[in-house]
Write a structure and sequence with these properties.
Radius of gyration: 17 Å
Number of helices: 8
Structural class: alpha/beta
Shape: globular
Strand order of the largest sheet: 3-2-1-4-5-6-7
Amino acid sequence: MPLKGLAGKRALVTGAASGIGAAVARRLRDEKVEVFATDIHPLDGAIVADLTSAGDVERLLAQVGTPDIVVNVAGGPVAPTRENTLPELPKHSAALEDIDERQWAAVLAANLTSAFLVCREFAPRMKAKRSGRIINFSSIAARRGSDRVGVHYAAAKGGIIGLTKTLALELGPFGITVNAIAPGYIKTERIAKASWGMPSADAEKLFVESLPLRRAGRPDDIAGVVAMLCSDAGAYVSGATIDVNGGWYFGP
């Protein structure tokens, strides 16, 4: 059954070339939402943009106009560049002393600055309409820490939670909800290829079996929560960080 309140809406989905972003764009289209997909990685039907560039985000606004929904999926533990738009994920976590200032700045820009720039550009248009939904992407790494993705990624995703709460306060009077999703182990193609830092298939199996739901997450599991938050069913949810991790973490 289609979710109420989505058909005919317009949505911007960032990081839509693969994985969770692609699943979110697909689910919203299934709900009859007009989706504008964007990514630094070229993709048929998507707008190519480097969201760490204020100029690119400004040009994106000119192409998209005023969406009803903004979903900031773009990011990852390795920052893409114009030369390497879909970098391989690391098979091993970087220790604190192995992360230099350039890597720190690049990962914060790809995950936190990008969401800030998109929100800064599109929120005023939503305010003028006095309605809208913004969904940002955090991570379980921000909720409980992580020894797999590095402190730069965890710090950036922690910043997303603060950004989300503050924007919920600021934009709520204009009828705009702002929420974050913190995925756990979502086995995208890129995650599977990198083995997500697992030393062996047996180690991954043991980890998955330790999760209360006894399975890895799928991109569609995240896309369903996004769709709910954007629908009438999510109209009174704002400032929340929704943990979608199969029960791996459910702390305060």
